Amino acid sequence: MEMVYLSRADVEALGMTMKEVLKAVDNGFRLKGLGKTEMPPKPGIHPRKDCFIHAMPAYVKEVEAAGLKWVSGYPPNVAKTLPYITGLLVLNDTETGIPIAVMDCSWVTAMRTGASVGISAKYLARKGSSVAGIIGCGVQARASLRALVETVPTLKQVRCFDLYPKASEKFIEAMGAVFGNLKFTACTGPEEMMDGADIAVSAIPIVVDPAPPLDAGMLKEGGLAVSLDYDSAWTSKAMGECDKFVSDDVSQLLSTKEHGVYFGGIPKNIYADLGELAAGLKPGRQNERERIFSMNMGIAVDDMVTAKVLYQKAVKTGAGVRLPL
Ligand SMILES: NC(=O)c1ccc[n+]([C@@H]2O[C@H](COP(=O)([O-])OP(=O)(O)OC[C@H]3O[C@@H](n4cnc5c(N)ncnc54)[C@H](O)[C@@H]3O)[C@@H](O)[C@H]2O)c1
Question: Which of 23, 95, 131, 284 is the most exposed place for a label (fewest CB within 10 A)?
């Protein structure tokens, strides 16, 4: 028996596009909405303050994707010029349970996280949305913009803010080179970044005692907020003023809340799981005025459907290294 090993460089070289990731992730959400996935809430360990290592298993019927992601998030790594997110993903054969692939998971994590933002926008953004506001100009911000460009074709402007101006400069340089048709503005603070934003994405580090920079009154009428950083960036008043509160996994949201560290201030009424929107079981946005909040914590279903496509590409092209079990 042998399995495929894919390094970060191997994964990237497979050339899976954001369009392909969005298609896989949208289908994953649809199957989740239809009850065709198995995904227990992720357990985690916390070797250092504000640091996590999570185990994220999932099985997705029809796609026949099954596996586990073992992913860490270490905010102090940034000062050491190490990546914040690192980890591995194992895929199993659903018929025999035998591991068929081990791959670096940082590319998959960023792309499927970005795709989740694109999918939130697909179902929840106001038609004609043209301005994106992004706080935290790191890895997830870049992938989120790539996805928004695909699902919000009317996008024209990006307003971004980072605690470190160098980070927003680098973001604009990198993304401006890819999307020359977009107008980028480096903002000096959260208020300026939110001014006129139709879609606001937060991607700052998750911390236990946050001082959320985004407050009530900042998200415009008809706006969509997507949080990738739990409740680190948004005050409970800001979340509470939204007409609809959606999550990529309501049961994970509630089980994380039960542990008492995060999500103490989320609204009581949760409108839907993104899966229910993708499966057509509930409507997404229903009028031009709604403020909508999407809390996307990141789900293993998204990882597995993306990894399955990567695995198939690797088998087809012979990419990576074959290792004996
Ligand atoms: N929901 C998901 O599926 C998912 C997946 C991966 C990562 N994440 C989360 O996304 C967030 C960003 O991860 P990343 O990999 O892009 O990290 P990153 O280190 O690449 O980027 C984070 C950026 O935020 C900036 N920042 C820090 N504090 C800030 C503040 N108060 N205001 C403005 N900017 C600030 C940093 O300078 C940095 O540029 C983390 O919270 C991470 O846990 C979520």
Answer: 95
